Amino acid sequence: MKMLRGVGIPLTVGMAGLLSGCGTSYDLPGVDDAVNARANAMFAQAKAAPPRAAATPAAGAARFQRVASRVQPVAERLCNAELAEKGADCRVQLGLDMQRTDRNAYFTYAGPGNGNPVIRFTVPMLQDVESDDEVAFIMGHEYGHLIGQHIVKQQQQAVAGALILGAITAYGNAQAASAGQSYDPNAVSRNMEIGAAVGSKAYSQTYELESDMLGTRIAMAAGYDPVKGAQFFARDEAARSRNGQLSFWGTHPADSRRLAVVLATVDQVKAGPADRE
Ligand SMILES: [Zn+2]
């Protein structure tokens, strides 16, 4: 960073500030040793669980509708309370993805300009879940990505990251040119692309944990057990599916920290609103 001081102070300092300003909106609950020990034990148990027998597609779809009818009103209320001022659309379309053949569930915007938010579950995912608690936690977690504004923030970070790397490269090229050395004009656009990838990944684990926290609150408020539900994420599954793409467990890495956040959030909710700073 030192070499940037001469030219880049306002530019680089300003944008570094923007990057860190795109973090999470919520404080995660504190995790103490006791919670960690419980999380580790549960994680080991979930990891060792035997393969499951698949439910029928019809049973999976019925489970999805049953859980959605309870989770949606709760999650929409929380979303409106958190995002009404920002003008975000909280009317999420919950539905099945009938195309994909992998086990997956995701949140995305189906419309331009981050409009028309959707949460979709694939049929194989619904055949694999074992309880309504699991569907409720996964659904709450996906709502968490909307309420935490994670896609919006990753877009902002990708732009900021690309600008920073682009600025660094441009500066380096300018230095090289003024020193009479050759420079590579394509390096600017190449670095812009790398910057976009780095910016998109930088907070993903933090956002995952934030979504776990929000998903825990949503599942509890809808009357489900998020601790039972979250164990779905802890299963021993491959990070990539056969076509080489990241699987649900690739984008949601199994990690005892997840369960620790869920356990600590449950404790926090049970302790009552006074505990929520
Ligand atoms: Zn997620």
TrEMBL record:
Domain Peptidase M48: start-end pairs: 65-263
Keywords for this protein: Hydrolase, Metal-binding, Metalloprotease, Protease, Zinc
One GO BP: proteolysis involved in protein catabolic process
Cofactor list: Zn(2+)
GO molecular function, one term: metal ion binding
Free-text remark on how the cofactor is bound: Binds 1 zinc ion per subunit.
GO cellular component, one term: membrane
Similarity annotation: Belongs to the peptidase M48 family.
Protein name: M48 family metalloprotease
Organism whose genome encodes this protein: Paracoccus lichenicola
Phylogenetic placement of the source organism: Bacteria, Pseudomonadati, Pseudomonadota, Alphaproteobacteria, Rhodobacterales
